[in-house]
Amino acid sequence: MKRLYDAFSALYNGDNIVKITELRYVPRWLVIIIDILIVLFSLFLSRIFLDNLAVKVNFPEYRMEKRFLLIFVNILFMYVFKTYAGIIRHSTFFDFFKIILSSGSTLITLLFLNYISELILGDSLYLYPNLFLYFLISVSIMFFFRMITKQFFNALTDIKGASSKVRVAVVGVGEVSVALARAIMHNPNYPYRLAGFLTNRSDSSRAILLGHKIYTKNQFFSNEKLIKQFDAVLLIKEIMTKQEIEEWMTLALDSGLKVLKAPTLSKMRDSDLVGGISQLQIEDLLNRKPIKIESEDVRKRHFEKTVLVTGGAGSIGSEIVRQVSQFSPSLIVVLDQAESPLYELELELYEKFPNQKFKFILADISNSYRLEKLFKTYQFSMVYHAAAYKHVPLIEDNPHEAIFVNILGTKNLALLSKKYRVNRFVMVSTDKAVNPTNVMGASKRAAELFVQSLQNSQGNITKFITTRFGNVLGSNGSVIPHFRKQIEKGGPVTITHPDIIRYFMTIPEACELVLQAGTMGNGGEIYVFDMGEPVKILDLAKRMIKLSGYTPDVDIKITFIGLRPGEKLYEELLSNNTTTIPTHHEKIMISRDPLMEFEEVEVLFKQIIMSAIKRDKLQVVSLLKTIVPEFISNNSEFEVLDKKTILDENL
Fold first, then answer.
1. pLDDT above 70 covers what percent of the chain?
2. pTM above the 0.85 mark?
3. What strands lie across the sheet with 382-385, from one edge to the other?
């Protein structure tokens, strides 16, 4: 009652729209009183109509008693079907159906009383036209009352939030688009207001949908006055191709509109759906079709098995842990040397997977004694080796650290996997290992050679598998988060070279392929992933600036700083003298790279590790070039070693 009083008192306080919209719902007792008044009014109208036709009623002496009986029966069925229980401003067809049931039951009951009356008294209690006329009038007015109230509150809500809400044009006129638009209309607490629909179809330009106009693409973007009535375009990724998303995005951004994306409708309730609307990100444009993995094979490989993930707190390692957790292994051991990220991952995983057993190990993979205790204790069935140093300029300045982690660490894990008869050892490598121009890429290529050499070594039963792919979107230190921070600071966005290109893959996509590749083959293979089309980094930067609402080189400057030590203009997934073999999975191929015998690579590894302990940079890189002959330094202090090699060959 207090809420109702507050709403009406606002009419005298000058804040009526705000107060009325803050009223949660019309009290139920008031709804049933209004419905009773509608019943009386319907009875009055039906009687007036029949009186004008000079129709005589039966049993006129019991007129009042008959009216009270009709009202009592109708109220009884209102209570039975709870026609007053719904929130009127959110009335739907279901509420109308309850009104039909209530009034229909009233009609049937009175028709039955008429039949009894005819049997006993020889005449009907009510005139049949009167009953049917009353039914039609009462149903119509009750439904009309609810629709008027709903539209009244919607109008007030629109007026209240018109200045602060984002005026959205939903792209599409299909069922999915309509469901999203309806969700926006029914959730006024969110900062969005439906303002219209956009479509490629030319046959819908004069139609009205949910009370809003439908505009064709050409009609909308060619009319500057019309564009000013909107703030954003809302895209639904699940019903659009990548090309369509890019086209709508470009048109919207060029017109000064924001570009929003909707979450997946099938996984969301209405309220979550509107709350899940967010700004379109560059990852949405680079993302590709979902990968189909053979989950049954992957499940069998992990179900009730003990799994080790090294580098488990990193971008790739943590996602491998999340995906493996879905297949109910008996234990997942997560190993990393980064204390804080490991602790944060521990909190996340215990919340997401409360029934899964985890063990979180803080350790350095270059410490073989620490690792051996783990292998002996847990007897791993699967090892995913994702621990590595990966930042090219840092490793170029500190090559010995790459030897300790990328080479010695891999050697320790691979030898222990062989010793303790691990079923499968899966190493995560990089496209920078192909024709490397930097220490980081060469160290990963050396690790690949060692892992491959173990496959046919004496006494080995472990399947050693290597996976190789390019940049992953959003990984620690990758270019997209870096650009995003620069844009947030107002620029400039720094790019090493205007022609530099890179392959990109999402973290979940990469990890799904790692898990799939881990179930394939007989060991010794290097699996390369289909990375799609390469992306020009300059185009990537321009898109990100536009998506943030700025104009490249006007609001946010783009500057070129030159290639960093060891950096390439483009990355390769296959070396020059490599052939590929397709697999049964369309996204995964086998790379046939040159091999080394275990005894040979073992001797060279011992030498390079001793050089790293002595911190002899030139000796370290020189030995690395011996292990990986195709390693030619670029824009680096180590180019002198390549010149020396060429000079020696000429002599």
1. 83
2. no
3. 358-362, 331-336, 306-310, 382-385, 424-430, 463-469, 526-529, 588-592, 579-582
